[in-house]
């Protein structure tokens, strides 16, 4: 039982360290659908004048 507690404490410490190093760059909102997603398509070409 104590091994389970020690393992959880180590995992929690690693998770807190990673989150503190990443700062506000971590996106934990999951999958995105709709207009707020970023697409990898090139921008449409400008119409000739």
How would you describe the overall organization of this protein?
With 49 residues, the protein is an all-alpha fold. 43% of the residues lie in helices and 0% in strands. The protein has one helix and no strands. It has one helix at residues 2-22. It is rod-shaped, with a radius of gyration of 21 Å. The protein starts with a helix and ends in a 27-residue tail after the last helix. The model has no long low-confidence stretch (mean pLDDT 80).
Structural class: mainly alpha
Biggest sheet features: none
Number of strands: 0
Shape: rod-shaped
Mean residue pLDDT: 80
Please give the alpha-carbon distance between the first and last residues.
75 Å
Discrete helix count: 1
Beta-strand percent range: under 5%
Q: Rg from C-alpha positions?
A: 21 Å
Order of H and E elements: H
Low-confidence stretches: none
Helix content estimate: 40-55%
Protein traits:
about 50 residues; about 0% strand; 1 helix; about 45% helix; mainly alpha
Task: Give the topology, please.
Blueprint: H1 2-22
Q: How is this structure best summarized?
A:
This protein is mainly alpha-helical. It is built from one helix and no strands.
